[in-house]
Amino acid sequence: MTNTSSAVALSQPLYGATFRQAVRRFFSKYGTFSGRASLSEFWWVALFTFLLSVVIVGVVYAVVYTTGVPREDGSIEYSYAGVAVSLVALLIALALVIPNIALTVRRLHDANFSGWFYLLSLLPSVGNIIILILTLMPSRAEGARFDK
Description:
Strand content: under 5%
Order of helices and strands: HHEEHHH
């Protein structure tokens, strides 16, 4: 079950994907909920989105706190630049919501779980832990039933 060729169709999971391949496929399959995603595709994208969020938060923090004007009461009067950068960060985060959900659903499919299991993430406290455990499960050949 190991195919590392970049010639693998987008409808199929790419086992052993590199960081670059996983991120490209992530954006190529932006809103695709059908099909499957390998462990490597899923976790490389998780690393990418984590690093992206660290950079974005760092930029927002730097701009907001270097361009803001401190008030006498200790709060900060935000500049237009701080507000603009914060809005851009929010738009980036919102733009990544759908593809991240789609990738998680495809990962669940590869482990032979229904994509509807993603709704378990709505359970307070334990939902995201359950999804984490399910995405850690190995790929199963039976997951091919979710391919088109």
